[in-house]
Structures are given as structure tokens and as C-alpha cells.
Amino acid sequence: MTLSLLAPPASSEAIMFRVNAALVPCIATATVAFGALTLAHCALALVAGALVEGCARAARGLPLRVFADGAAPVTCLLIALAIPPSAPLWIAPVAVLVGLGLAREAYGGLGRNVFNPAMAGYAAVLVAWPHALAWVDGQTGATALDALRFRGAETVEEAFRAATFGVVGGRGFEWVNAAALACGLYLVLTRVVHWRIPLAVLLGMGLPALALHDGGSSESFGSPLFHWFSGATMLGAFFIATDPVTAPRSAWHQWLFGIGIGAVTFLIRATGAYPDGLAFAVLLGNLAVPALDSLQRRGSGE
After folding, report:
1. What would the pLDDT profile of 253-281 be if each residue is shown by its tens digit?
2. DSSP-assigned states of every residue in 188-244
3. Structure pTM?
4. N or C: more exposed end of the chain, with fewer CB within 10 A?
């Protein structure tokens, strides 16, 4: 008999349950890699999400069924995973308030939002309090993305000797990305998400990294493997960019959407002021989706 967790989900609620379940190993890995404060941010984000969704449903006169569709917990947990453990504990609730309250509920609720709520909330607090969102701790200092971006005349090999780097990516981040990759492949295999967007994101990031790697000189921005296993790459590719509400519907447009997100993320990592531009890349991709869907409708004569 096929196990229920391996069978394709039969409803939107089942899809969200599967995504929440797939995030659990990612959270566990992040907790081991970065400390127990990761769990504190998750708990506070979930509490804030329940309050925001409860208030929104009450304002609409709907029954008080918090987290009934399972979508809000996904937003809360993705925000918590994006936040450094050293960040103030109020950061996650504020990000959830922006993400669920403004980016989702203000648009009319689930299914009507234009922007990915998790990335909208995270980007808002990142822009407002950049120092509070810096990934800095007593063991590693800044992240590998920071170290590579501001390494001066060091080659990639020389930079990798620093404590911020792991075997192929950022120290700690490579394990979280490995967990997200494994859980993301599970979502693909069980038909929760389609493979096109994750693959397109990885290609959009990996191809320019490969073209500009030049063997690892002081001018190199890091190999594709480094970028895939640093920052929030795999979470972004499998759990964020694949959001069915804010991603395009046609196959060709999904390729453009994913490649654009990957390429913009790499561009920001290589030349921008922020070490990881995934949130901004996703939001820019979301902004392009209505235009892509409009082109699809015109092409089909609707």
C-alpha cells in the first residue's frame, strides 16, 4: 500500500500539510547548525501568524479557524528560517505582520496576493533593520557570502580557509541547503511542486557563477556549487519560488520566472549591498507574473 506521505496530495490543504512537514527537517538542521534560538523564532512567528490570521478572519466575519488551510504556517516558518538566530526576538513577529497582514490579507486573503508573503515580510524587516538581520555570531563572524563579497585580493581558495566557509558552501548553511534540497526533491517526487521552477532557479544562479568563476581568482564570485549551498538557495528554489499563488502558470513562463530569480540573486550577491538577494529577486519575479500571465491569455485568445 502506498504511504499517504508518498501519494500525491488530493487537496490544497494536503499540499500545505506536505510543505509544512517538509520544512521540519530543515528547521531541525538549522537548529543544530545555528542554535536553539532558531526554534524560538519559529515559535514566535507561528504565534504572530495565528494572531494575524485570526484577526483577519474575524474582521471578515469568518469562522475562527486559524491555520486551517496550512498556508500561513509555511509563511511563518520560512520567515523564521530566514532570520539570524542572533536577531531580536521581535523581528519575526514584525515580519509576519507585514507578510501575512499586508502582503496577503490586505490583498483579500490567500489566493489573491501578488507578492510572496514570506519574502515580503522578510524584505521589509531587512530594509528597515539591516544590522539586526546580519548573520553574525561569535564563532563564524559574517557569513561566507559576506566574506567572499568583501575578501579583497584573496582568491576563492584563500577565502575558503576562513571559519565562515564549510566544505562546499557557507558554514552551517551548506547543511541547511542540503536538507532543503532533500526535502524539496521529496516535494517534487510527490507532485507537490513541479520541477521546472527549482531547476530554473538553480540554473539562473549557476550559469553566471560558472561563467564568472575563472578557476577561483580574486575576481571570481564563487563556483555554482558554492552559491547553491550558501544563503537560502535551496529553500528559495523549492519552497519559496514555487508558491502556486505568486508563480506563473505556463511552463515557458515558469522557466523565465525561475531563471530570472536565480540570475538576480547571483547579481545581488556579486555586486549588491546585501549579501543574499533572494528575497528581492523573488519579489521582482512576483511583480513580473501578472504581465507574463497576461501575455499567456492573449496568446491563447482569451
Report:
1. 999 999 999 999 999 988 877 778 899 99
2. HHTTSS-SHHHHHHHHHHHHHHHHTTTTT-TT----HHHHHTSTTHHHIIIIITT-T
3. 0.88
4. N
